[in-house]
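Is this the right way to post structure tokens for a design question? Let me know if I should format differently. Anyway, here goes:
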């Protein structure tokens, strides 16, 4: 007598459609196309340790499994999220047993390798060195920061990319043929699915499965899926964004460089991408203030004022109204005159002071609040600039004795700094004339 528990539920669509051969893999042509690194490695039949670095749903686990088949190796997979030293030892024992009984080497696949701490990663090293197993790690984080240098030096890093829209469309056709062959999709519906997948193959297959379930009501069979059905069936998907990870800093970098490059549209795009991804607007407001100081400076002092006003406006209004002020600030900074002269001057002065010896303050610049200090010559022969012609004490020195003029601040010929440069040139000429007398 059968029961409901006798039948095994079908695997998820993402697992059912996992490629069985390298030729079935969609995407990663920069690694798998003829003549490319992994294609050559698979063709050689000689495995090597590697780290597969890329966002979720781009085929890291699939490539690891296919490596075992291509190289005719045993395959052991552990997840660093769940595993510890115990699981590592068990994997090593299993690899040793496979070598002893069958003379067959093993591929040890560690998913989310960045989750292992240093000691756990170090536990793999002797067995990678001995050739007991070939190590393949998968990570969504930058291996330079998350993988021990010793392990990193023994593995080739391959960077996997998000799938392009054309590649996701190929995958959709495969999924529809397998899971929903009798149902048609309007082009706009497919576009919506692909947009929601956001470069993630697993997400696309999960969405197709979700649509299949939503359309399988026997009392209301559906023959054609349109965009409205997709939008009603799907929940809003968060864009791919790892707060604090590489994509976070890559997008901050893109925002900053778009402002520096005077492209307001690109600056707004990256700002909205980060807001859409859930970044704290207060963090963005701090970065916007930094941009005003670093890349605009005195070429347009209003930029700093506007950046500070935007930050205060966000504190008062919050989201979403306050985000408009951040957008306006970003646009203004992008179109403002640019100068990093102040920024360069500050860095140069700081570097000089860090390396230089401690120089005493010249007597004429010292404070003299007491009779003793005055008797010691503090403040003696100081020239009060307001009493001088042009409000400038021509020929006066303000640096420590013997220190040459470093000329750290050199204004650029843009915006207000054009006038500042003219003023500084005028004052330097006064200094030259004073020294001739």
């Amino acid at each position: 007598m059968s029961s409901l528990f006798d039948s095994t539920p079908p695997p998820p669509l993402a697992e059912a459609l996992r490629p069985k051969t390298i030729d079935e893999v969609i995407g990663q042509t920069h690694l798998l196309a003829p003549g490319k690194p992994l294609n050559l490695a698979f063709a050689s039949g000689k495995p090597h340790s590697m780290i597969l670095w890329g966002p979720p749903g781009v085929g890291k686990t699939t490539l690891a499994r296919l490596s075992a088949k291509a190289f005719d190796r045993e395959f052991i997979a552990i997840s660093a999220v769940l595993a510890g030293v115990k699981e590592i030892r068990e994997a090593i024992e299993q690899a040793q047993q496979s070598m002893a009984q069958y003379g067959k080497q093993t591929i040890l696949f560690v998913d989310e390798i960045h989750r292992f701490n240093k000691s756990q990663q170090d536990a793999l090293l002797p067995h990678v060195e001995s050739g007991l197993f070939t190590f393949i790690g998968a990570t969504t984080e930058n291996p330079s920061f998350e993988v021990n240098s010793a392990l990193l030096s023994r593995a080739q890093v391959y960077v996997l990319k998000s799938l392009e829209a054309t590649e996701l469309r190929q995958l959709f056709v495969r999924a529809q043929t397998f899971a929903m062959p009798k149902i048609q999709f309007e082009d706009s519906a497919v576009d919506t699915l692909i947009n929601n997948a956001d470069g993630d193959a697993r997400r696309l297959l999960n969405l197709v499965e979700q649509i299949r379930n939503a359309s399988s009501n026997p009392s209301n069979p559906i023959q054609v899926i349109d965009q409205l059905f997709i939008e009603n069936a799907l929940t809003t998907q968060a864009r791919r964004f790892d707060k604090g990870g590489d994509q976070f800093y890559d997008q901050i970098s893109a925002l900053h460089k778009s402002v520096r490059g005077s492209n307001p549209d690109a600056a707004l795009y990256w700002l909205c991408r980060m807001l859409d991804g859930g970044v704290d607007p207060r963090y963005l407001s701090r970065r916007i203030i930094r941009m005003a100081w670093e890349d605009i400076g005195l070429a347009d002092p209003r930029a700093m004022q506007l950046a500070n006003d935007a930050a205060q406006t966000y504190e008062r209004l919050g989201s979403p109204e306050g985000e408009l002020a951040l957008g306006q600030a970003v646009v203004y900074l992008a179109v403002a005159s640019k100068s990093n002269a102040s920024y360069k001057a500050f860095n140069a002065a700081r570097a000089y002071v860090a390396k230089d010896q401690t120089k005493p303050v010249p007597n004429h610049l010292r404070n003299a609040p007491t009779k003793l200090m005055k008797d010691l010559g503090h403040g003696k022969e100081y020239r009060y600039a307001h009493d001088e012609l042009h409000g400038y004490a021509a020929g006066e020195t303000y640096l420590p004795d013997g220190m040459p003029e470093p000329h750290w601040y050199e204004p650029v010929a843009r915006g207000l700094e054009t006038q500042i440069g003219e003023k500084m040139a005028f004052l330097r000429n006064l200094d030259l004339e004073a020294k001739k007398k």
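Format looks fine. Someone answered above. Worth noting: Confidence is low (pLDDT under 50) at residues 1-5. The chain has four domains: 28-159, 165-233, 246-335, 357-436.
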